[in-house]
Amino acid sequence: MNMKTNTSLGRLVRGAKLLLLAGVFLAAASRPALAQSEEGIKAAFLYNFAKFTTWPDGAFAGGSAPVTVGFVGADALADKFEQVVTGRNANGRDFAIKKLAGGAGAENCQMVYVGDATQAAAVLGATKGKPVLTLGGSDSFVSAGGMVNFVMEGGKVSFDLDLNAVNANGLKVDAKLRQVARNVKGG
Q: Domains plus CATH for the chain?
């Protein structure tokens, strides 16, 4: 195989991964219009991250406690996520949505999305070593210790995944997420 064919094959495989990801994640969106916006796609991703993440015993207050998802500097995404998850659950758990001003309270969530990059250090500090899946959307989020970073690539939403950070906080993510990630760090 020559270099040009190898490169084309790589693009084809990456495109197939993104299509699979979009199919899995967008199928979860309750309204087709949500899939048309970046926030709608991210909200569907967040829902599926909740479905495909395993938290350790003790991560929830009780057997019927909801998956609490915090949003820092991302109120519009929090509202869109609430629309997506209304009437749905993740592995038998309902959802609770919290809009946070910064790192305070982040340690009491199971997932935290950081939309304000200036708050990333505070959130990551508050959740370090705790069973909280941290997600963001800035270039330096994963290098700062975040677990999932959303990226725009070719006009499409994708994500990078840091398994070292995921494992350090006692979480496990399903292989399906690892397979559709744009980049996976650690293992």
A: 3-185 (3.40.50.2300)
